[in-house]
Amino acid sequence: MSRVEDALAPSRATAWSRLAQHALELQTQVAASMEATRRDQRRGPARPRKVGVGGVSDASPCSDDTDCPGGFCHAGDCRVDPLDTDSTQEGVCTLSPTDRFCVATPIKGCLSDTDCQPSAACPFCTPGDTCQIRPRACFVNSGIIRTGSPGTPDRDTAAIYCVPGNGGAIDTSAGFPGPGALIQHESVIVVP
After folding, report:
1. Which pTM value belongs to this model?
2. Taking the CA of residue 176 as centre, how many other CA atoms within 13 Å lie in the half-sphere pointing to its CB?
3. What is the Cα gyration radius of the chain?
4. Can you spell out the DSSP letters for 50-67?
5. Tens of pLDDT along the chain (192 residues)?
6. Of 28, 43, 141, 155, which has the fewest beta carbons less than 10 angstroms from its beta carbon?
7. 93 within 8 A of 136, measured Cβ to Cβ
8. Pairing of β 137-139 and β 90-93
9. C-alpha to C-alpha distance for 167 and 70, rounded to whole angstroms
């Protein structure tokens, strides 16, 4: 191994550790989402899964086009998320089950504020963090676009990929199979 490879070995181990931590947090998030979906289903009849697009009933539940003067009734809709200020084309479903995430640690799923406190299950959580209920994320109707930027030492890597189905309840609650996308900021550190 060269000196550069020797110097990068701890960095690679840290990256794999972070990836494993992220996978565990994603699993927790999916479990929390599944529980929330089960709780929503126990509350009674399902909410309408159609929404008005355009007109005076924009983004409101509907049964057919007559409920949407000046627009039309559509089975679900994904709109640009006004709360997402650090990227483009991130959307939220106008009608869907809600998801719960910690505010300061948004990759951590939760059912209550106590799930967002530092613990063995969440060593990177921030004291005083709270659980936030948000509409389910989606890709906006116009398509999926991710743009990276080349550079040295900093760059942004962009990817669009397919997420395979896993079978059963996980597919239903997480929306698999389906598209996935990311933008990852990277910094290159040159070790002498």
Report:
1. 0.49
2. 15
3. 20
4. -EEESSTTTTSB-SSGGG
5. 455 445 445 555 565 566 556 555 656 665 555 555 555 545 444 444 677 888 888 878 888 889 889 888 877 678 788 777 766 677 888 777 788 989 888 878 899 999 999 988 888 888 999 999 888 888 776 678 888 888 888 888 888 888 888 887 777 767 778 888 888 888 888 887
6. 43
7. yes
8. antiparallel
9. 40
Residue 99 structure tokens: 């998801």
Short-list 74, 109, 79, 73, CA closest to 93: 79
User: Amino acid letter at 135?
Assistant: P
Q: Measured in whole angstroms, how far is the alpha carbon of residue 6 from the centre of its chain?
A: 35
- The conformation of residue 23, written as its DSSP 8-state character, comes to H
**Which residue type, as a one-letter code, is found at position 50?**
K
| Amino acid present at 59 | A
Q: Is 151 exposed, middle or buried (0-12, 13-18, 19+ CB in 10 A)?
A: exposed
The number of residues in the chain equals 192
Q: Which residue has the tokens 């126990």?
A: 42
